[in-house]
Amino acid sequence: MEKAFLAGWESTRRDAAPGSIADAEDSLRELKELTASAGARVVGTALQRSSDPDPSTLLGRGKVNEVRAQARAAGADLVIFDHDLTPTQLRNLEKCFDLKVIDRTQIILDIFARRARSREGQLQVELAQLNYMLPRLSGHGTVLSRLGGGIGTRGPGEQKLEMDRRRIRRRIRILSDNIERVRSQRALHRAHRRDQNLHTVALVGYTNAGKSTLFNALTSAGVVTSARMFATLDPTIRALPLDSHRTALVSDTVGFIRKLPPHLVAAFRATLEELQEARLLLHVTDASDPEHEAQDAAVEALLEDLGVASKPRLHVWNKLDRVAPAERRKFAGADRSVAVSAQTGEGLENLRGQIAAALAADPMVEADFEFPSNDGKHLALLHESGTVVSTYYQADRVWVRAIVPESLREKLKPSLSAAPSER
Question: Residue 128: CB partners within 8 Å, gap ≥ 6?
């Protein structure tokens, strides 16, 4: 197990971007969790507060010397910065420390590389890695000469870092083309679900909020869950029966995090497009986490970036079993929210009811349809999406009376007909 020393920086200027010293300390604590998820042990931390970052090393010269001494005394194998480093800063810090140096983006990419199991996930991670690597090729710093040699340097589709920019750009084009095909396939699947009149409910939330545990509790999917960050990378979709007439699809998605690298979001665009097609978002929050307000703000910002912040939403306060009884009241009764424990099952029936109510904008109606008798596609659609009351065959035609969602009736409007007895 590698030993990691963590370093952070926070601006003390009044006109700095929103965020306080407490935010920097919280972010550093979160970096500890990320480091543990990547398989390393934290042996020390340091945080510098100054008005402006040092352009050559991020930290001031005195702080760099202090971190170097502390890291060496702790026997650290690498130093991880809770800040994106420029190529120049990366090279200078490696030279100062004589240790491997990585930043927050690299640790997240490393975790993604460990967790991606599907071919799609591996393609997306490799694309993000190469886009990160490309501007950092100049100078061939120490960290860029050992892909595959530990935390921050491993990943699917590993390449020797001696390859030049042209080879990387060519590989990026290939990956982008492959991911574009994935997007096309996903678009076909979504079109098929629309044809089947199945609504998708997407789980969103901060990493480790319990989305996969909730997903399993609602759908009995058996998705692997873990207390470590980013346990879920590859999206999973399962059916969720709502009542005797309706079934929705629930989609489990990758967790969000503060300072999520923009090119990582771009690489996972094919996956996150599921959110854009969802009829309803379930924003899952760990109610027991004292930082849940900051985490929710980070999720909200990413939903804004993805253009889905205005979608209908239910706020699901999860892990109620870890909340003190006196604290539970503040999570109950708020509009468009429900408190649950995915672990114990508390509140799940209420959640199912609220999901059904939120999707009730598409009420069930009774209607008569007329099709050619060999039109198996529409006949199957009525059986899958509704309840067939009666079927009447005559010559090469078939009349079906069914209870279906109003949106399906509108979609099949050209086939609406009077019942045979009324003709």
Answer: 109, 112, 261, 263, 264, 266, 267, 268
Instruction: Quote the number of domains for the chain.
Output: 4
- Say yes or no: 324 and 392 in one domain: no
pLDDT tens for 315-338 read: 999 999 998 888 887 876 667 889
Same domain, 298 and 263: yes
The answer to whether position 191 is within a domain reads no
Distance from C-alpha of 184 to C-alpha of 301, rounded to nearest angstrom: 27
Domain assignment of residue 243, yes or no: yes
* Residue 186 falls inside a structural domain: no
Whole-angstrom CA distances from 276 to 68, 200, 269 are: 46, 10, 10
Strands 247-252 vs 236-241: parallel, antiparallel or unpaired = antiparallel
Q: Which two tokens stand for residue 95?
A: 């030279």
Q: CA 269 → CA 209, 263, 264, 374, 397, distances in Å? A: 21, 10, 9, 40, 45
Q: Does one domain contain both 329 and 235? A: yes
Q: How many CB atoms lie within 10 A of CB 380?
A: 11
Task: Say what the pTM is.
Answer: 0.72
Residue count of the chain, please give it: 423
> Which candidate, 63, 101, 103, 66, places its Cα nearest to that of 82?
103
| Model pLDDT for residues 123-177, shown as the tens digit of each residue | 888 888 888 888 776 544 444 444 445 666 555 444 444 556 788 888 889 988 9
Domain boundary among 151, 178, 205: 178
185 lies in some domain:
no
264 three-state secondary structure:
helix
Provide the domain limits for residue 245. Answer: 197-358
Runs of H (alpha helix) within 196-291: 211-219, 262-267, 269-277
Query: 370-394, pLDDT tens digit by residue?
Result: 888 888 888 888 887 778 888 888 8
59/158 same-domain check: no
Last residue of a domain, one of 178, 209, 226: 178
